[in-house]
Specification:
Blueprint: E1 5-9, H1 13-25, E2 29-33, H2 36-46, E3 50-54, H3 62-71, E4 80-84, H4 89-98, E5 102-105, H5 110-129, E6 136-139, E7 142-145, E8 150-153, E9 156-158, H6 162-172, E10 178-180, H7 181-188, H8 197-211, E11 218-221, E12 225-228
Parallel strand pairs: 1-2, 1-3, 3-4, 4-5
Antiparallel strand pairs: 6-7, 7-8, 8-9, 10-12, 11-12
Helix pairs in contact: 2-3, 3-4, 6-7, 6-8
The protein binds calcium ion.
């Protein structure tokens, strides 16, 4: 089997060396770049299966690299994991909204990085395999019938408002993915209903309460948004 190719874009040489060492040891083929411009060029030439992207880069920063990757047909479907420093929550939110898949905060252990990489690759494979045709989502004790607008916990129907149901579907369709509030708003919009970021928080509170034992599947990602537990 050909090795999975991962491109790491990071200007801090010691972090880059650490990433290169651990990913290579885990069986990946690793490409490295120390600037956004070089990274973008490598991504376009080599079609990696995943990009690790430092946000604070000299010259073209990570968010711009992400924007460029997602803007080009050849690279838009490559999953991106951002490497972020403490206090970069606003950039994490911006990156997720640009289409990045996940982020890992520095300093990170090799074990955490490798498990995030595996999770993102797994989610992408699953997404490609079963994107549109899913009508029933089952996670733990929760069962959602999309066509019937119905949610059941341990077999018992849960009374949800239309917006709560839409928020639940948005999260549960992609377990493990972090959604920002404005991504959730985009998913819920469509009805003539004014949704604000604060309103998303209110919907989540209502959802958790109504879902009872299944409410714990909805996780808060501090400073960023929400995520459905990846069982
Ligand atoms: Ca940096």
């Amino acid at each position: 089997m050909p090795k999975i190719k991962i491109l790491a874009i990071e200007d801090e040489e010691d972090i880059l060396a650490l990433v290169h060492y651990n990913l290579t040891r885990d069986g990946y083929e690793v490409l490295t770049a120390t600037s956004g411009e070089d990274g973008l060029a490598l991504a376009r030439q080599n079609a990696p299966q995943l990009v690790l992207l430092d946000l604070m880069l000299p010259g073209m920063d990570g968010l711009e690299v992400c924007r460029q990757l997602k803007r080009t047909a050849a690279t838009e479907s490559i999953p991106v994991i951002m490497l972020t420093a403490k206090g970069e929550e606003a950039d994490v939110v911006a990156g997720l909204e640009l289409g990045a898949d996940d982020y890992v905060s520095k300093p990170f252990s090799a074990r955490v990085l490798l498990s995030r990489i595996r999770a993102v690759l797994r989610r992408h494979a699953r997404k490609n395999a079963s994107d549109a045709d899913k009508d029933v989502i089952e996670i733990g004790t929760l069962r959602i019938h999309l066509g019937r607008n119905e949610a059941l916990v341990e077999g018992a129907p849960v009374e949800l408002t239309f917006s709560e149901f839409r928020v639940l579907c948005c999260l549960a369709r992609r377990p493990g993915w972090v959604f920002t509030r404005s991504q959730i708003i985009d998913a819920v919009r469509g009805d003539d209903y004014a949704v604000t970021e604060r309103a998303v928080d209110v919907q989540i509170v209502g959802l958790r309460r109504k879902l009872g034992s299944a409410g714990r599947y909805i996780e808060t990602v501090r400073g960023v948004g929400y995520r459905f537990k990846d069982a």
